[in-house]
Amino acid sequence: MINKIVKIVFIFSMLSSNGQTLDIVFPEKEIGVDNWNIVNDGVMGGISTSTLSINNDSNLIFKGYLSLENNGGFASSRMSIKKNILDNVKSFKIKFKGDGNTYKLRLRQDNKRVSYSCDFKSVKNKWTELDIPIKDFKATWRGYSYPNYSSIETDKINSIGLQISDKQEGNFTLEIKYIKASF
Questions:
Q1: Residue 3 falls within a domain, yes or no?
Q2: Measured between alpha carbons, how far is 165 from 177 in angstroms, rounded to an integer?
Q3: Tens digits of per-residue pLDDT, 79-120?
Q4: Is residue 98 domain-resident?
Q5: The pLDDT of residue 63 is above 90
Q6: What residues does 13 pair with on adjacent strands?
Q7: In the beta sheet, which residues pair with residue 182?
Q8: Are 167 and 103 in contact, with CB atoms under 8 Å apart?
Q9: Which of 17, 92, 155, 166 counts the most CB atoms within 10 A of its CB?
Q10: Percent of the chain with pLDDT over 90
Protein backbone atom coordinates (compact mmCIF):
# COMPACT_ATOMS: atom_id res chain seq x y z
CA MET A 1 0.00 0.00 0.00
CA ILE A 2 1.09 3.51 -0.73
CA ASN A 3 0.77 5.97 2.11
CA LYS A 4 0.20 9.45 0.68
CA ILE A 5 -0.44 12.79 2.30
CA VAL A 6 -1.77 15.48 0.02
CA LYS A 7 -3.64 18.76 0.34
CA ILE A 8 -7.41 18.86 0.24
CA VAL A 9 -8.54 20.29 -3.05
CA PHE A 10 -12.18 20.71 -3.94
CA ILE A 11 -13.06 20.59 -7.60
CA PHE A 12 -16.45 21.59 -8.94
CA SER A 13 -17.72 20.02 -12.11
CA MET A 14 -20.96 20.47 -13.99
CA LEU A 15 -23.26 17.57 -14.79
CA SER A 16 -25.90 18.16 -17.43
CA SER A 17 -28.79 16.59 -15.52
CA ASN A 18 -27.87 17.02 -11.86
CA GLY A 19 -26.39 20.51 -11.55
CA GLN A 20 -23.13 20.92 -9.70
CA THR A 21 -21.13 18.21 -8.00
CA LEU A 22 -18.24 18.52 -5.59
CA ASP A 23 -15.55 15.87 -5.23
CA ILE A 24 -15.19 15.34 -1.47
CA VAL A 25 -12.97 12.23 -1.60
CA PHE A 26 -11.30 11.18 -4.85
CA PRO A 27 -7.81 9.82 -4.11
CA GLU A 28 -7.03 9.23 -7.79
CA LYS A 29 -7.26 13.03 -8.21
CA GLU A 30 -5.50 13.55 -4.85
CA ILE A 31 -8.68 15.02 -3.35
CA GLY A 32 -9.79 14.41 0.23
CA VAL A 33 -7.05 12.14 1.46
CA ASP A 34 -5.72 14.47 4.15
CA ASN A 35 -7.19 15.70 7.44
CA TRP A 36 -8.68 12.34 8.43
CA ASN A 37 -8.80 11.19 12.05
CA ILE A 38 -9.45 7.72 13.41
CA VAL A 39 -12.03 7.52 16.21
CA ASN A 40 -12.57 4.00 17.51
CA ASP A 41 -14.38 2.57 20.52
CA GLY A 42 -11.18 2.98 22.57
CA VAL A 43 -12.67 6.33 23.64
CA MET A 44 -15.14 4.21 25.64
CA GLY A 45 -12.83 1.36 26.67
CA GLY A 46 -13.20 -0.83 23.56
CA ILE A 47 -10.31 -2.38 21.63
CA SER A 48 -11.39 -2.11 17.97
CA THR A 49 -8.72 -0.95 15.53
CA SER A 50 -8.79 0.77 12.16
CA THR A 51 -6.49 2.46 9.66
CA LEU A 52 -6.79 4.59 6.56
CA SER A 53 -4.42 4.31 3.62
CA ILE A 54 -4.24 4.70 -0.14
CA ASN A 55 -3.73 1.51 -2.14
CA ASN A 56 -1.85 0.97 -5.42
CA ASP A 57 -5.06 1.69 -7.37
CA SER A 58 -5.25 5.15 -5.71
CA ASN A 59 -8.33 4.26 -3.65
CA LEU A 60 -8.95 5.06 0.02
CA ILE A 61 -8.85 1.94 2.22
CA PHE A 62 -10.65 1.93 5.59
CA LYS A 63 -9.86 -1.34 7.34
CA GLY A 64 -9.34 -2.90 10.72
CA TYR A 65 -10.87 -5.19 13.31
CA LEU A 66 -14.19 -4.56 15.06
CA SER A 67 -14.20 -6.02 18.57
CA LEU A 68 -17.15 -6.28 20.95
CA GLU A 69 -14.89 -6.79 23.98
CA ASN A 70 -14.92 -4.20 26.81
CA ASN A 71 -18.30 -2.88 25.59
CA GLY A 72 -16.73 -1.91 22.27
CA GLY A 73 -18.31 -2.09 18.89
CA PHE A 74 -17.34 0.67 16.50
CA ALA A 75 -14.50 1.86 14.34
CA SER A 76 -14.66 5.13 12.45
CA SER A 77 -12.74 7.74 10.56
CA ARG A 78 -13.68 11.32 9.81
CA MET A 79 -12.35 14.11 7.68
CA SER A 80 -12.68 17.77 8.56
CA ILE A 81 -14.15 19.99 5.87
CA LYS A 82 -14.74 23.71 5.56
CA LYS A 83 -18.03 24.97 6.92
CA ASN A 84 -20.48 26.11 4.20
CA ILE A 85 -18.83 23.93 1.54
CA LEU A 86 -21.83 21.55 1.65
CA ASP A 87 -24.53 24.21 2.01
CA ASN A 88 -27.64 23.06 0.13
CA VAL A 89 -26.20 19.61 -0.67
CA LYS A 90 -28.96 17.35 -1.98
CA SER A 91 -27.20 13.97 -2.01
CA PHE A 92 -23.90 12.10 -1.85
CA LYS A 93 -22.65 9.67 -4.48
CA ILE A 94 -20.24 7.05 -3.20
CA LYS A 95 -18.43 4.37 -5.19
CA PHE A 96 -17.08 1.58 -3.01
CA LYS A 97 -16.06 -2.06 -2.82
CA GLY A 98 -16.51 -3.88 0.44
CA ASP A 99 -16.57 -7.14 2.29
CA GLY A 100 -20.31 -7.69 2.75
CA ASN A 101 -20.55 -5.56 5.90
CA THR A 102 -22.86 -2.60 6.44
CA TYR A 103 -21.15 0.77 6.86
CA LYS A 104 -22.31 4.25 7.71
CA LEU A 105 -21.63 7.51 5.92
CA ARG A 106 -21.65 10.13 8.68
CA LEU A 107 -21.93 13.90 8.75
CA ARG A 108 -21.21 16.12 11.73
CA GLN A 109 -22.03 19.73 12.49
CA ASP A 110 -20.02 22.04 14.68
CA ASN A 111 -23.04 23.04 16.76
CA LYS A 112 -24.55 19.62 17.66
CA ARG A 113 -23.52 16.56 19.64
CA VAL A 114 -25.35 14.19 17.33
CA SER A 115 -24.03 12.91 14.05
CA TYR A 116 -26.21 12.33 11.04
CA SER A 117 -25.65 8.95 9.44
CA CYS A 118 -26.96 6.71 6.72
CA ASP A 119 -26.24 2.98 6.38
CA PHE A 120 -25.01 1.43 3.16
CA LYS A 121 -24.46 -2.27 2.53
CA SER A 122 -21.39 -3.50 0.70
CA VAL A 123 -21.29 -6.57 -1.52
CA LYS A 124 -18.20 -8.68 -1.08
CA ASN A 125 -15.54 -7.83 -3.69
CA LYS A 126 -18.00 -5.95 -5.92
CA TRP A 127 -17.90 -2.28 -6.88
CA THR A 128 -21.12 -0.44 -6.03
CA GLU A 129 -22.14 3.13 -6.78
CA LEU A 130 -24.84 4.54 -4.53
CA ASP A 131 -26.69 7.85 -4.32
CA ILE A 132 -27.65 8.80 -0.76
CA PRO A 133 -30.14 11.70 -0.46
CA ILE A 134 -29.49 14.12 2.40
CA LYS A 135 -33.00 13.36 3.70
CA ASP A 136 -31.86 9.77 4.43
CA PHE A 137 -29.34 10.92 7.07
CA LYS A 138 -30.73 10.37 10.57
CA ALA A 139 -29.61 11.88 13.86
CA THR A 140 -27.63 9.43 16.03
CA TRP A 141 -25.58 9.69 19.19
CA ARG A 142 -23.60 6.88 20.83
CA GLY A 143 -25.37 4.28 18.72
CA TYR A 144 -28.92 5.50 19.41
CA SER A 145 -31.26 7.07 16.86
CA TYR A 146 -33.15 10.27 17.58
CA PRO A 147 -36.02 10.37 15.04
CA ASN A 148 -37.53 13.59 16.43
CA TYR A 149 -34.23 15.49 16.45
CA SER A 150 -33.90 18.50 14.18
CA SER A 151 -32.83 18.01 10.56
CA ILE A 152 -29.27 18.53 9.52
CA GLU A 153 -28.25 22.10 8.70
CA THR A 154 -26.13 21.63 5.58
CA ASP A 155 -24.35 24.97 5.95
CA LYS A 156 -22.93 23.80 9.30
CA ILE A 157 -21.54 20.41 8.23
CA ASN A 158 -17.86 20.37 9.24
CA SER A 159 -16.89 16.71 8.79
CA ILE A 160 -17.72 13.62 6.81
CA GLY A 161 -16.85 10.13 7.94
CA LEU A 162 -17.08 6.38 7.61
CA GLN A 163 -18.06 3.97 10.39
CA ILE A 164 -18.63 0.30 10.98
CA SER A 165 -20.65 -0.75 14.04
CA ASP A 166 -23.81 -2.70 14.84
CA LYS A 167 -22.13 -5.80 16.29
CA GLN A 168 -20.30 -6.78 13.07
CA GLU A 169 -17.33 -8.29 14.92
CA GLY A 170 -14.29 -9.26 12.88
CA ASN A 171 -11.97 -7.95 10.18
CA PHE A 172 -13.36 -5.35 7.79
CA THR A 173 -12.17 -3.63 4.63
CA LEU A 174 -13.91 -0.87 2.70
CA GLU A 175 -12.36 0.54 -0.48
CA ILE A 176 -13.56 3.98 -1.61
CA LYS A 177 -13.14 5.17 -5.20
CA TYR A 178 -14.90 8.48 -4.52
CA ILE A 179 -17.45 10.40 -2.50
CA LYS A 180 -19.16 13.29 -4.29
CA ALA A 181 -21.72 15.84 -3.17
CA SER A 182 -24.53 16.86 -5.53
CA PHE A 183 -26.26 20.22 -5.28
A1: no
A2: 21
A3: 999 989 999 999 999 999 999 999 999 999 987 889 999 999
A4: yes
A5: yes
A6: 21
A7: 21, 91
A8: no
A9: 92
A10: 79
